[in-house]
Design brief:
The protein is an alpha/beta fold. The protein has a single domain, classed as Rossmann fold, CATH 3.40.50.1820. It is built from 14 helices and 9 strands.
């Protein structure tokens, strides 16, 4: 995708956005019928359902060849159950779903692939494979077809959102529902933390590329991605330790910098994503860590502009909501999907 970015579409007024972010959440409660300010942990956990003691043992770890890419994925749940395709974000992998999968695997078939360039998926080097979001979506689309998935709900988180929304636009008939967990599709959902990336988008050069490298550092992964806005006592070190190890692999940073540059195509596609939402009205549940430093609450509220029946919930945590609120997210999904998609 080479659509040029229109400057007004990606220019963020820092002071205004920071000031209005919190106000928008409160005001949205009055404007959006299906918006919840926060899940109540005691209530949510009481409705999450019991997890069979064998569920964890039933998670399978597999690979599927898609062209030159060997996609690693986790799978659990009955083969004939409704499918949820779990799409992770930056800088993580399907490992981020380790707590969520057992909470839903009694009733749903959960499939969580590692995107090319992430986790344990094996993809060609940069000379043979372009690390773009179009290619991520192409591989994951081929992956769903190789597994024979005719219908599926999409869990769209971070990078998984523009990947999943491309799949949805290409095959709207396959998508039974969308769960957006800090998965953005609106300019108003971008915080004031995108300056270095936006500079790179507007003026790709060795200098602007290098300025984005700080986004890949261990300190940023731990403190910005995982701990910011979350209760540190609830964040296990497993996730960020693994992500840092993945980022230390040969050529990993260069692949990620390629994707950072290509992220501009996602912003350019926001109007098309929104057109898809308006045209097809997929059942949509937005579950948002309201303290996310990158994707702020107005991005969650905005879904209701295009999908009036969208259901929006805010949790008192950061970007990686599943690290601290997996049972709450599972309960919201269970209740939502139970109403919105077929049981068979």
């Amino acid at each position: 995708m080479t659509t040029p970015i229109q400057e007004p579409a990606i220019t963020i007024n820092v002071s205004r956005r920071q000031t209005l972010a919190a106000v928008a959440v409160g005001a949205a409660a009055l404007l959006v019928p299906h918006l919840s300010m926060a899940a109540t942990p005691a209530k949510v956990r009481s409705t999450a359902g019991a997890v069979d003691e064998n569920t964890l043992k039933d998670v399978k770890y597999k690979t599927q060849k898609v062209g030159d890419v060997e996609v690693f994925y986790r799978e659990a749940g009955p083969a004939n159950a409704p499918v949820i395709l779990l799409l992770h974000g930056f800088p993580t992998s399907s490992h981020m779903f380790r707590n969520l999968i057992p909470l839903l695997a009694d009733k749903y078939r959960l499939i969580a692939p590692d995107l090319p360039g992430f986790g344990n998926t094996k993809a060609p080097d940069r000379s043979a494979f372009a690390y773009t979001f179009d290619n991520l979506a192409k591989v994951i689309g081929g992956f769903t077809e190789a597994l024979g998935l005719k219908h599926y709900a999409i869990y769209a988180f971070d990078y998984g959102a523009p990947t999943g929304f491309r799949l949805a636009m290409a095959h709207p008939e396959r998508v039974t529902a969308i769960i957006s967990q800090n998965g953005n599709a609106y300019v108003e959902g971008l915080s004031d933390q995108w300056g270095a990336w936006q500079d790179y988008w507007r003026n790709p050069s060795a200098q602007t590329r290098e300025a984005c490298r700080a986004s890949l550092s261990a300190d940023t992964i731990i403190n910005f991605q995982y701990l910011h806005g979350a209760d540190p006592a609830l964040v296990a070190p497993d996730g960020y330790t693994l992500d840092i190890a993945y980022m230390a692999r040969s050529d990993a940073e260069e692949k990620q910098l390629d994707l950072i540059l290509d992220y501009r195509t996602n912003v350019a596609l926001y109007p098309e994503f929104q057109k898809y939402f308006r045209t097809h009205q997929p059942p949509l549940l937005a579950v948002w860590g309201k303290n996310d430093p990158a994707f702020i609450p107005p991005g969650a509220v905005a879904y209701s502009r295009d999908i009036p029946k969208a259901e929006v919930h805010f949790l008192n945590t950061g970007h990686f909501a599943l690290e601290t609120h997996s049972s709450e997210v599972a309960s919201l999904m269970r209740e939502f999907l139970g109403r919105k998609i077929s049981k068979a």
